[in-house]
Design goal:
- By secondary structure, the protein is an alpha/beta fold.
- Helices cover 27% and strands 25% of the residues.
- The strands form three sheets. The chain has a nine-stranded mixed beta sheet with strand order 11-10-9-8-12-6-13-16-15, with helices on both faces.
- Strand 15 and strand 16 form a beta hairpin.
């Protein structure tokens, strides 16, 4: 096998833990010597051993003189676990191939420098693009201290979210809806407006055939109108955080419900993202409604959009922007995105696109 093939194996290992490691990044490692794979590992959960630790444990004494392929720069600081750069040095590894540098200021080249100073041959940049894409939300969080925001919607081929009467069950197929639950499993928090809660009364949990992790539920409710008997209030599967600008006493008594007040003197959505960032929310899945989507787009706070497009036409109905107040008379006024993936799921299409920003 080649260096690239070993690194691709490490990337596959990293991907296997999606939805489990936040607020830590996804990392995979492979230990190789004389053409033999001695050990493999993935970081499985924050606070537990890193990928390099698992790979070196499997390799045992044979790790001396080996090459370790790792998808993210080994850490050089002591957090909940000891520094992996030190472990690689102690175990006598001869060469370390790193896909990409860790942007965390506590690492950011320090791990590489420490290993090089100890005489390890360090190479950086193999499969860097794939490694950065794998941890794009983590990189964004480290840079901005805010969660990576993904807008999700299901639409018909003529761009409708619902019929004129508001009926939207179901636009997409069971296969597409299961895919949404897989994405919920992989994210930290899911956000909707209070209007969606009042109209649809969703659980906002993950429902997969083999189970899954529930994202923290985030409700935007400036006037504190979320019903006390709504599922997001009464269901105790996971915490619900209600963000409001109201100073009225709230009626929620469940220990699973937190009300966080945002001052009416500051911009609401940026303040919400700042608060979520402080809570360690790395990825935020915004499921709507459409006015919420519009607000994130207009304030340039959205990072990615995922649209599930069903092969159906319903004519008049609610569009992605049901009541847009934004006037874009010319094509030059458009909001630019870049398609990153189009996948067929059952009879539907899943389209992913990144919002183009000044740092792209």
């Amino acid at each position: 096998m080649t260096d690239e093939q070993y690194m691709q194996l490490a990337l596959t290992l990293a991907k296997s833990a999606k939805g489990q490691t936040s607020p830590n990044p996804l990392v995979g490692a492979v230990c190789v010597k004389d053409g033999r794979i001695l050990g493999t590992g993935a970081h499985l959960k924050a606070g537990e051993p890193h990928a390099e630790v698992h790979a070196l444990r499997q390799a045992g004494e044979e790790a001396r003189g080996s090459t370790v392929y790792v998808t993210l720069e080994p850490c050089a600081h002591t957090g909940k676990t000891p520094p992996c750069a030190n472990l690689l040095i102690e175990r006598g590894v001869q060469r370390v191939v790193v896909a990409t540098v860790d942007p965390n200021e506590r690492v950011s080249g320090r791990g590489i420098t420490r290993m090089q100073e100890a005489g390890i041959d360090v190479e950086v940049g193999l499969c860097e693009r794939e490694a950065r894409q794998l941890n794009e939300p983590f990189f964004h969080y480290i840079r901005t201290k805010r969660p990576y925001v993904t807008l999700k919607a299901a639409v018909t081929l003529d761009g409708r979210l619902a019929t004129e009467t508001g009926d939207s069950k179901w636009i997409t197929s069971p296969e597409a809806r299961e895919d949404v639950h897989r994405l919920r499993h992989e994210t930290d928090a899911i956000l909707v407006g209070s209007g969606t809660v009042r109209q649809d009364n969703p659980f906002l949990t993950t429902r997969l055939p083999l189970g899954g992790t529930h994202p923290t539920r985030i409700i935007l409710d400036r006037r504190l109108r979320t019903p006390v008997d709504a599922y997001v209030v009464t269901d105790e599967a996971v915490e619900t955080i209600i963000f409001t600008t109201s100073d009225a006493p709230h009626p929620y008594t469940s220990p699973y419900v937190t009300v966080e007040r945002i001052s009416p003197d500051v911009s609401f959505l940026p303040a919400v993202l700042d608060a979520l960032g402080k809570r360690g929310i790395v990825q935020l899945f915004v499921e709507g409604g459409p006015r919420i989507h519009e607000a994130f787009i207009e304030e340039q706070l959205a990072d990615e959009a995922i649209l599930y497009v069903a092969p159906k036409l319903i004519g008049n109905g609610q569009s992605f922007f049901t009541s847009s107040s934004t006037d874009r008379p010319a094509m030059s006024d458009h909001v630019p995105l870049t398609f990153t993936d189009v996948t067929r799921i059952g009879p539907d299409l899943r389209v992913r696109a990144r919002f183009q920003k000044g740092d792209d």
